[in-house]
Structures are given as structure tokens and as C-alpha cells.
Design a protein that fits this description.
By secondary structure, the chain is of the alpha+beta class. The protein folds into 2 domains: about 150 residues, Aminopeptidase, CATH 3.40.630; about 180 residues, 3-Layer(aba) Sandwich (Aminopeptidase). The longest helix has 26 residues. The termini are far apart.
């Protein structure tokens, strides 16, 4: 166990990550290091890293980054009620242990492993360490299917949430979309009409978009984006999670990961949205090559324009994804309004271990009821499909 991601060999970590079925780009060593080095995820902000490595001889067999958390902010799987219940019973909930990417509700592999047995052993060691440290709990957030399988075998409790993802697949003809109009024609008439109206309002307001990727994004572009990002957080009453220095480091270390949409009016930038781009195996067995995946991350505006949020965060990215053969666009956490824009409900799963037997039993009963509620919610969302009847 090491206290810093810099105690891990970046090549060994990224090589093991590349072997996973769901190798999220947010799990790359450079991304985790940028979070730490920029001061965004550190002990001072309540994210104290502990890096666990499982060796088989000289080979790295499994690894993960666990964070000791002094609060529940920046996780997007909400356990405030659990912490409150502990407090009302005179028990200490914090610090707790979280295996996740800070501030990033993107599903992907959390327990990097060469095989299922190594993943299971790693998880068992995490629980044993939490018991030794007398921590209240361990939380494995937005985990991949193989992580959840190990968690289920180890006896962790499962919790489901709902996200919304867009897929570059014509629902009737089972092929990628050819262009944005082809995508629109797959939708029901009312959804198609609504999207066209929303896009027209932005265009009629004189707004045009400039798209930059990688090294094309200038320092001035990044400064403008951060001004938008910073303002959006403060408008919601919170300081931003990520520092400007994080984006400096992320842009320098992973330039091709970033795609920036800048909305301009009369030649002046007024809003921006940032998405990340990564790759993953096309099939679970990894035999069908790789596919590109895009992840919606941050947005902000310095001026108000009707429907600009939808254009910057959904329509521009979807059009780019179609033009560049991207297989999936993940729209982030929550937001039923995304369904009307053809981002379909997708289940995301987390796993939880609580040290206190009584609370573990009570939370397990609660999660059983919650899972039933999520299933009913998913069923209800499916009845509101944005696609043409029968798709």
C-alpha cells in the first residue's frame, strides 16, 4: 500500500488498465496524478489516496486507488442519510473508504486485475485493511461488471442508479447514423420537431460553434472554459471541485483526450462544453477491436441564450460523434430531460461494505427496496422512448 499515485509505475498501471474490458480514460495514471498534483483531490480536500498493488512475482496482478474520505462530496452516489443515521446513534461514519475516480461519475473498471481471482483477492485485502483501520465502510462506485461480480462474490451490497447514454445505432436498421438528420429521422415526430426548434433558437440568436481537440485547444480557450466552469459551480452555491491547474496538467499530459465546444456570438465566446474521448474493446472478449466512446463532462455560460445548454451539451457532441464514428456518448449523471434527446436510461452499479453489522443489515434491506424502485423507474422511462413507434 502506497500513499501516492506517484509510487506506482505509470507504465505498469496503464498496461494493466489497457487489459480491462472497460478501461475508462479517467483511470489512467496521468489523470489520477493530475487530480493529486493540482490539489483537487488531496488530504486537504478530503480525498487522501491509498494505492494498493497486488504482485505475483515481478508482475503487477491487480491494483486500485482507494481514497480515505472525510465527507461525501464529489461522489454522485449519495450516502448522506447513512452518515446522518450514524451520527444520530453516536457512531462515527467518517473517514470512510471509497474506490472511485474523484468527481467523475463515469462507469468503468475500478479494480484493475489480470483475472477474476486477482480481482477478488484485491477486494478481500481492501476489506481487511478497512477493518484494521477501523473504518466505517468501503464503497466501490460506478464499477464495471467484472468489479461487481467480485463484489457480489465477496458479499458486498449492491446499489443501482440511472444514467443516460446515447448510442450511435439506428434503432430500426441497426447501423450507425450517417448524419444528424439521419438521427433525427429515427425519432418520433414530436421529439424531432422539438429538437429542430431548440437548435433553431440558438442559431437565430446568432450563436455559432467552434470545435477544438487536443493541441488545437489554446491556453486562451482553456482559460475561457474554466471561467465558464467556475461560474457554473458558484451559481449553484458551491466552489468548483477542480482547479485551473488540473486542466493545465490534464491538457499537457492527455491532450487527445479532450474535445472543447465553444459557443460564439459576434466573434466573442459566450459558453463552452468539454467532453472527453476514450477507447474500449468493442466486445466483452476483446476480440472485435476497439471502439471510441465520448463522455460529457462540464459546461458553463457567461450569457443566457434560450436552449444553448441543449445545443452545447447534447446536439453538438452528438453531431460530432456521428461524424467521427463514435460508438457511445455518455451524458453523465441524472437528468430525465436527456431522454427526450435520445440519451437512453442505463443502469450504473456500485457496491458497499459496512463494518457495523446492525447498520449493514438495515442498509441492505433499504437497498433491496431501492433496487426495486430503480427497476420500476427504468421500466417507466422505457415507455417514453424518443424513437419512432416500434423501434
Amino acid at each position: 500500500m502506497h500513499p501516492s499515485v506517484h509510487d506506482i509505475d505509470p507504465t505498469a498501471w496503464d498496461t494493466l488498465l489497457a487489459r480491462q474490458t472497460h478501461p475508462s480514460p479517467f483511470m489512467r495514471h496521468a489523470y489520477l496524478a493530475a487530480l493529486q498534483d493540482s490539489g483537487s483531490a488531496t488530504s486537504r480536500t478530503g480525498w487522501a489516496a491509498r494505492c494498493f498493488l497486488l504482485w505475483q512475482g515481478d508482475a503487477l496482478a491487480a491494483a486500485c486507488v482507494l481514497y480515505l474520505k472525510a465527507h461525501s462530496r464529489g461522489e454522485y452516489v449519495f450516502d448522506w442519510a447513512w452518515a446522518d443515521a450514524y451520527a444520530r446513534h453516536g457512531l462515527v461514519y467518517y473517514p470512510k473508504a471509497v474506490v472511485a475516480v474523484p468527481f467523475t461519475p463515469v462507469p468503468g473498471t475500478r479494480l484493475l486485475a489480470c483475472d477474476g481471482e486477482a480481482r477478488r483477492v484485491l477486494l478481500q485485502q481492501l476489506i481487511a485493511w478497512c477493518q484494521e483501520q477501523r473504518l466505517s465502510s468501503l464503497h466501490l462506485l460506478f464499477a464495471a461488471e467484472e468489479d461487481i461480480a467480485s463484489a457480489r462474490q465477496t458479499g458486498l451490497m449492491l446499489r443501482h442508479t440511472v444514467q443516460f447514454h446515447w448510442h450511435n445505432r439506428h434503432p430500426q436498421q441497426q447501423r450507425p447514423f450517417t448524419d444528424f438528420d439521419d438521427f433525427l429521422m429515427s425519432l418520433s415526430q414530436d421529439k424531432r420537431k422539438k429538437i429542430r426548434q431548440e437548435r433553431r433558437r440558438v442559431a437565430d440568436a446568432g450563436v455559432r460553434f467552434r470545435v477544438c481537440r487536443g493541441e488545437e485547444i489554446s491556453v486562451a480557450d482553456w482559460d475561457f472554459f474554466y471561467a465558464c466552469y467556475d461560474r457554473t459551480y458558484w451559481e449553484h452555491g458551491n466552489p468548483p471541485y477542480l482547479t485551473r491547474d488540473f486542466f493545465v496538467r490534464a491538457a499537457a499530459r492527455m491532450p487527445k483526450m479532450w474535445l472543447l465546444f465553444i459557443a460564439e456570438r459576434d466573434g466573442q465566446p459566450i459558453a463552452s462544453s468539454l467532453i472527453a474521448v476514450g477507447a474500449e474493446p468493442s466486445s466483452a472478449d476483446g476480440q472485435s477491436g476497439m471502439q471510441t466512446v465520448a463522455y460529457g463532462r462540464y459546461w458553463g455560460a457567461l450569457e443566457r441564450v434560450d436552449c444553448l445548454h441543449f445545443e452545447a451539451c447534447y446536439y453538438q457532441p452528438i453531431a460530432w460523434c456521428i461524424a467521427n464514428g463514435v460508438a457511445r456518448f455518455e451524458g453523465g449523471a441524472q437528468g430525465e430531460h436527456k431522454l427526450a434527446r435520445a440519451l437512453l436510461p442505463t443502469q450504473a452499479t456500485s457496491a458497499h461494505w459496512l463494518a457495523h453489522p446492525g447498520f449493514a443489515h438495515a442498509v441492505d434491506e433499504y437497498l433491496q427496496r431501492e433496487r426495486e424502485g430503480v427497476e420500476h423507474y427504468m421500466d417507466a422511462l422505457q415507455t417514453h422512448s424518443p424513437f419512432r413507434h416500434g423501434a
